[in-house]
Design brief:
CATH superfamily of the largest domain: Zn peptidases
Largest sheet: 8 strands, mixed
Distance between the termini: 12 Å
CATH topology of the largest domain: Aminopeptidase
Strand content: 15-25%
Number of strands: 16
Length: 397
């Protein structure tokens, strides 16, 4: 296996410049969730160049490729990369800056796609060196619920062949390029969206006795719902209830008839998740009623929490340490962010690990989902080589 590892490292170096160019092209031409038509066309052309068979149009814009090694029916490992960008106006001044107004790959999905294409090229070159097959999943719409993962699963992406594992990597700005981070077990939270409409009776702000103030009611609701975390949640179960949007279209002397609120609830326990929904509905409705108004509650059920298969994740940690060196493999904490990769993990032993992209000397430190987000492109060489190495090791088991 050491000779094979050396070959992967050599191929990663050989293919780096072209794979970086792929990332830059994708970064310049971002497409939002469910709009990834040109992105899919570009990926298809690259797979054609590499001589890799694929099916397009899965979940409308998704692509699924297949690489057959020796005895391809013996075992399959699936590799996944997400494709969509975000509605953010890029403020970087780099030569590969987004050319699409108010759209940007601010979450690193361009790196994910480029790395998977690079890994695919390596694996296809080495297909006579491993048993089994590799499924390449280019998934649309990770950023927008209900997400592309569940649609691809419904359309059979985990069938014919059935993978024994699904593996993904996701960039992170807190780790230097050249490093990766892993967390076995529960790693990312479930995510649901809260939509509240508080109904009152508006009018002149100087005549409160004639009104039912929905702004005041909404304020009480926001404060009260924080008690779900501080006084109802088991302290051992991470829980978040946050509101990011409150809209009451009045003015200094006008109280509106209604106020709308939008927020999120996140946790790691499905039973508790259901209880939170019930508590939000009951508390918001009763508070509004007690103050003379009413509250319409809608909670959009989002992604489940992500559980990295412990056995697979620990093996990936060992393989990564062998490939990158022990000092470049970091144990990381659970996060309250969410990922629709969790749908794959609910079906097949899976692992999503973190790919470092930080470089303080180059000023590459911005958080994901910001207008100045960027990556040290050294991460691409790490990402594509490591993914190929992990795949071959898993197939060899």
């Amino acid at each position: 296996m050491n000779h094979l590892k050396d070959q992967i490292k050599l191929l990663s170096s050989e293919y780096f410049e072209e794979t970086r160019a792929i990332r830059r092209h994708l970064h310049q031409h971002p497409e939002l969730s469910c709009e990834e038509f040109k992105t899919a066309e570009f990926i298809g052309k690259k797979l054609d160049e590499y001589g890799i068979t694929y099916v397009k149009g899965v979940a409308e814009t998704g692509i699924v490729g297949i690489i057959n090694g020796i005895n391809p029916e013996s075992k399959n490992v699936a590799l996944r990369a997400d494709m969509d960008a975000l509605p953010i106006r890029e403020e970087n001044t780099v030569e590969y800056k987004s050319v699409v107004p108010s759209k940007m790959h601010a979450c690193g999905h361009d790196v994910h796609m480029a790395s998977l294409l690079g890994a695919a090229r390596i694996l296809n070159r080495l297909r006579e060196r491993f048993d089994g097959s590799v499924k390449l999943i280019f998934q649309p719409s990770e950023e927008t619920y209900p997400g592309g993962a569940v649609r691809m699963i419904r359309e059979g992406v985990l069938k014919n062949p059935d993978p024994v594992a699904v593996i993904a990597q996701h960039v992170i700005n807190t780790l230097d390029a050249g490093k990766i981070g892993l967390k076995a077990g529960p790693y990312m939270a479930s995510t649901d969206e809260i939509y509240l409409t508080v109904n009152g009776k508006g009018g002149h702000a100087a005549t409160p006795e004639q009104l039912i103030d929905p702004i005041l009611i909404a304020s009480h609701i926001v404060v009260a719902l924080q008690q779900i975390v501080s006084r109802n949640a088991n302290p051992t179960i991470p829980t978040v209830v946050s509101f990011g949007k409150i809209l009451g279209e009045g003015r200094t002397n006008i109280i509106p008839d209604r106020v709308t609120l939008e927020g999120t609830v996140r946790t790691y326990d499905e039973s508790w998740r259901k209880t939170i929904h019930e508590k939000i509905t009951r508390m918001a409705s009763s508070i509004a009623a007690a103050m003379g108004g009413s509250c319409d509650v809608r909670i959009a059920h989002g992604y489940p929490y992500l559980d990295n298969d412990p056995q697979l994740t620990l093996k990936i940690r060992d393989w990564a340490a062998d490939y990158l060196g022990e000092n470049n493999v970091v144990d990381i904490d659970a996060r309250m962010t969410a990922e629709d990769f969790s749908y794959f993990a609910n079906e097949v032993p899976s692992c999503l690990y973190r790919l470092g992209i930080r470089n303080e000397q180059k000023g590459i430190v911005s958080n994901l989902h910001t207008s100045t987000f960027d990556v040290d492109e050294k991460c691409i060489q790490t990402g594509m080589g490591l993914m190929a190495w992990i795949t071959i090791n898993r197939l060899a088991q």
